[in-house]
Amino acid sequence: MSYEVLGITVLWVFLFGYLIVASIDFGAGFFSFYSSITGKRHLIHNIIERYLSPVWEVTNVFLVFFFVGIVGFFPDTAYYYGTALLVPGSIAIILLAIRGAYYAFNSYGTRSKTIYMFLYGASGLLIPASLSTVLTISEGGYIEVDSGGKVTFLFSKLFTSTYSWTVVLLAIVSVLYISAMFLAYYADRAKDRNAFEVVRKYALVWSGPTILSSLLVFFAIRNHNPEHFEQMLNLAWMFVASFICFLIAVYLVWSKKRLGLSFLFVMLQFGFAFFGLVPDICLMFCIRI
Amino acid sequence: MLLSGYDPVLYSRILTSVTLGFHIIFATIGVGVPLMIALAEWIGIKRDDPHYLLLARRWARGFVITVAVGVVTGTAIGLQLSLLWPSFMRVAGQSIALPLFMETFAFFFEAIFLGIYLYTWDRFKNRMVHFWLLVPVVIGSSASAFFITVVNAFMNAPAGVTVQDGKIVDIAPFAAMLSPAMPTKVTHVLITAYLTCAFVLAAISAWSLLKGRNHVYYKKALKLTMVSAFVFILASALIGDLSGKYLAKYQPEKLAAIEWHFETTTQAPLVFGGILTEDNEIKFGLKIPFALSILAHGNPNAEVIGLNDIPADEHPPLWIHYLFDTKMAFVVMMTIIATAFMLFLWRKRAAAYTSKWLLRAIIVAAPLAMLTIEHGWIFAEVGRQPWILRGIMRTSEGATVSNHVDSMLILFTLLYIVLGITAVRVLTRMFRSNSAEDEMADRLILGGEDK
């Protein structure tokens, strides 16, 4: 196994780990806030608290592992990303800081405050949106290197591109879907029927938009980077597999059966799709400039 | 570019120092407080004393809030390394990836056990089981400090790498962790973190005692923290001495700049205080004969390298002398305060907890300790200039060339102000609304009068 393949495998594991754990975490934060303004907080508060309390610090760790991994295995890639991503990266850090800190202030402090809950619920949805720009940029076309080697990030291009907005949409919707699917499993394990009914509804509501926004991303990639789209078509079976996993997962939640298995299929669904999106050996780390 | 005269290197340095200057407060608390909690809980179990157990419980409760701020600012500096210093990370990334990875892993370990520890008070029949859950937290937090200081040691004295045309080739990852700067730096950081936390927690007890809340709970807390502070200050004095000897051998330019030592000489005197005129003459300084030679080599006749033997473009800024001497003045004050408490405890025990002046001094010692950490860190970093990676890469070559560092500086400064204010408010509300006396009444803990 070459150094690069080893590196990519390690980074892949960290990023996928982060994708799942952070999605659950961010979504749970949002549902916690949403349920409190819709008056359902008393129903799902317990399971969300029980899940959130131990994991929020661990979620950050996955992200840092991923970045340290890039630096260690692909210092040149880290250089381009570092230079290009100062602004979106800093915004993501600030959101992560607000989220982590206000979660702790809210749950370990004396009393819970709606403003704290709003801050951590809302930042949780904005973080995936800002982090998803990393994926968008890896498709190429948003970084310019001039003859002197100066790296510039083309903001306006990113903000006006359909592709980048479809990715943002997919990121937010997926977060809510993954999180609701997990909480459904978790509530079922905890034998909390009332909470289960609420989060099951969330899961089913967000399943449709997840598939729709995935389709949107497909079409957007075809327009943005036809070459990559061709490569993805060669791996069409992975997307078919992903879709089948999605159907099984949603069916299991809908019929209220085998919810652990259902969440396993959610992870497979995103595993197939994510791996299919970045098919060649250099994955997202050889930036297409 | 928001501000005129924009220079990405300057703003990258300012933003990095703002982030670290804020993070270091919470990082220090994060490293030292678990040890103090462990001490209190251990004594509480061994002596079957509910006061110490309550102390551990209350410290742990406040600790979680500071950990949260430490985690998010730690994540910020971790990512800012790549965002603000991409060229540095390109050159050094592979050599420091291992300790960075270990640091994150140590934190991971700590976070998991901290979560379990917080939720398992009174869950075990054998109370030592709960204590043992804290041990990984103490180890994990100190290990985090260990590994991140290893990275800093590498920047000060790169080891385990071969340099060819300004590029690092041939990296031996473990040898890179064993930089000659590592042993003194790591121990200094750890011990002073313990020391600072002992003083911070002592100040809280002293505050309550000064307010006339004379429950024995506060006296036990003050005794535990101040005796610890005394032990740690002795240890840090010893390590501080070894750090001086390390500098003389491996980073003579830093030592020369700190001490305004311009000419290489034997029997070098130490200059304390003073000001530097335009043509590098020292005025009003206190000269202690032979002291620099002793500090550097443990021998009054030893030769100490002066700035005249260092190329002019590699001189560190000379103002670090002021930082260093201020820091040493703080250290002297803390030593006096800790020693005074020990003398009181030994000679007139009652007065140790009632003397208004002593209690006030202990309250002052906490910010002094934190300022010492900040001063020490700033002079260690500025003293490495002009290098970001000593002898390999200059700071000016390591920074980003982005046009937006100044706007990011404003955003992050606002973030830290907001986080700092909220953290303080949450902490004060937490302890005001649930005083130790109320909690003792709730938990049916007896014994309020002085024994």
Automatic annotation (TrEMBL), chain B:
Membrane topology of this protein: Multi-pass membrane protein
TM segment ranges: 20-43, 63-84, 96-119, 131-155, 186-209, 221-240, 328-346, 358-380, 408-427
Coiled-coil portions: none
Keyword Glycoprotein appears in the UniProt entry: no
Signal peptide feature range: none
Main subcellular location of this protein, as a coarse class: membrane
Family as reported in the entry's similarity comment: Belongs to the cytochrome ubiquinol oxidase subunit 1 family.
Name of the featured protein: Cytochrome ubiquinol oxidase subunit I
